[in-house]
Design brief:
Elements lengths: L5 E10 L2 H6 L2 E8 L15 E9 L6 H17 L5 E12 L11 E7 L8 E8 L6
Antiparallel strand pairs: 1-4, 1-6, 2-3, 2-5
Length: 137
């Protein structure tokens, strides 16, 4: 019986602040663990990583003139709270990931690191597992 493959992606909602825009490229490091670690920074000896991936990400560039025009056009939506000055990035992290049989081989926890030379502000971060369903069941 074939194992079910998964695609794993990270979705970040980042404010379009000057410091975030000046950051440029940054790295996302995602590690899946088979049990809950005692510390988020230091996994224990019984908590070996199941899978690990690193991917680059960058916010979309907009020239200052286009950025100002976009803000002015959306100003009414910002004022009434229907829109935020943010950007949503979806970064595919792992493709066709398969877990061996057994509950000990399923991820119980994860660690997502955002690695950058400068400080970044983040509204939300979400990790999604999408099963690739194939065949007739």
């Amino acid at each position: 019986m074939a194992l079910q493959p998964y695609d794993v992606s990270v979705t970040l909602e980042l404010p379009r602040t000057p410091s975030n825009l000046d950051t440029g490229n940054f790295m996302l490091d995602l590690t899946l663990f088979s049990s809950r670690p005692a510390s988020a920074l230091l996994p224990g000896p019984n908590n070996a990583p199941i899978s690990q991936a690193r991917r680059p990400a960058i916010m979309t560039y907009a020239s200052p003139l286009v950025d100002v025009a976009r803000r002015v056009a959306r100003m009414p939506l910002y004022v009434v709270g229907l829109r935020r000055e943010s950007e949503t990035l979806e970064v595919p992290m792992m493709e066709l990931l398969e877990f061996r049989k057994g509950t000990q081989n399923l991820p119980r926890s994860l660690r997502l690191e955002i690695q950058s030379d400068s400080k970044m502000q983040i509204y939300t971060a979400r990790v999604e597992f999408r099963a690739r369903l194939t065949g007739l069941r």
